[in-house]
């Protein structure tokens, strides 16, 4: 497949993930205030992230592989599924797509009276954080461990679901549900990243607090991706004849 088309698919897929996932958190999670039955809440946001990956993978998987996430790209490289020469272009396309989606989301959200981003609050503009910027006040060590382990398991699921001997056609469903589960576990801890492009996209607009903590949401997911890729490369390797 032409590289320009592959990068466009990664750009659009990451755009969709940030617009759908972070958009649900900013616009719909607390719609009407606490106790309003129209707000989708914690579970709704988790499901929204899973649905963006599921639908994006069906739309773009045959074009680019549907990474939509630098940690996935690096993890697939570590697992022997992706060439080194394409890693940086994929990551750039993902980050740019995510930032554009966050910019559009900011302009949509700004259309409501009284909208403002308070960068001192945990989860401001769907940003990720630890310590005072963690939804549950979790420490930097807890946040780091959570992001590493959950990203590693995400890579294991991705590589297993896309293995040549896995049931055909079901990979996007497994991957989308895995991301939903990851959010159900970790929204209280870090507001869930497992994706440096998603974290960067909203941090750009969330203020200095989110930007100062962004290092963790690159380092931990990338490390987790590498671990997951290497682990599945060993687990899923075909035995040699004889």
From TrEMBL:
<keyword id="KW-0472">Membrane</keyword>
<feature type="short sequence motif" description="NPA 2">
    <location>
        <begin position="195"/>
        <end position="197"/>
    </location>
</feature>
<feature type="site" description="Involved in tetramerization or stability of the tetramer">
    <location>
        <position position="22"/>
    </location>
</feature>
<feature type="transmembrane region" description="Helical">
    <location>
        <begin position="215"/>
        <end position="235"/>
    </location>
</feature>
<feature type="short sequence motif" description="NPA 1">
    <location>
        <begin position="69"/>
        <end position="71"/>
    </location>
</feature>
<feature type="transmembrane region" description="Helical">
    <location>
        <begin position="138"/>
        <end position="158"/>
    </location>
</feature>
<protein>
    <recommendedName>
        <fullName>Aquaporin Z</fullName>
    </recommendedName>
</protein>
<feature type="transmembrane region" description="Helical">
    <location>
        <begin position="170"/>
        <end position="189"/>
    </location>
</feature>
<comment type="subunit">
    <text>Homotetramer.</text>
</comment>
<keyword id="KW-1003">Cell membrane</keyword>
<keyword id="KW-0813">Transport</keyword>
<feature type="transmembrane region" description="Helical">
    <location>
        <begin position="38"/>
        <end position="60"/>
    </location>
</feature>
<feature type="site" description="Selectivity filter">
    <location>
        <position position="183"/>
    </location>
</feature>
<dbReference type="InterPro" id="IPR022357">
    <property type="entry name" value="MIP_CS"/>
</dbReference>
<dbReference type="InterPro" id="IPR023271">
    <property type="entry name" value="Aquaporin-like"/>
</dbReference>
<comment type="similarity">
    <text>Belongs to the MIP/aquaporin (TC 1.A.8) family.</text>
</comment>
<comment type="function">
    <text>Channel that permits osmotically driven movement of water in both directions. It is involved in the osmoregulation and in the maintenance of cell turgor during volume expansion in rapidly growing cells. It mediates rapid entry or exit of water in response to abrupt changes in osmolarity.</text>
</comment>
<feature type="site" description="Selectivity filter">
    <location>
        <position position="49"/>
    </location>
</feature>
<feature type="site" description="Selectivity filter">
    <location>
        <position position="192"/>
    </location>
</feature>
<dbReference type="InterPro" id="IPR034294">
    <property type="entry name" value="Aquaporin_transptr"/>
</dbReference>
<dbReference type="InterPro" id="IPR023743">
    <property type="entry name" value="Aquaporin_Z"/>
</dbReference>
<keyword id="KW-0997">Cell inner membrane</keyword>
<keyword id="KW-0812">Transmembrane</keyword>
<feature type="transmembrane region" description="Helical">
    <location>
        <begin position="87"/>
        <end position="106"/>
    </location>
</feature>
<feature type="site" description="Selectivity filter">
    <location>
        <position position="198"/>
    </location>
</feature>
<keyword id="KW-1133">Transmembrane helix</keyword>
<dbReference type="Pfam" id="PF00230">
    <property type="entry name" value="MIP"/>
</dbReference>
<keyword id="KW-0677">Repeat</keyword>
<dbReference type="InterPro" id="IPR000425">
    <property type="entry name" value="MIP"/>
</dbReference>
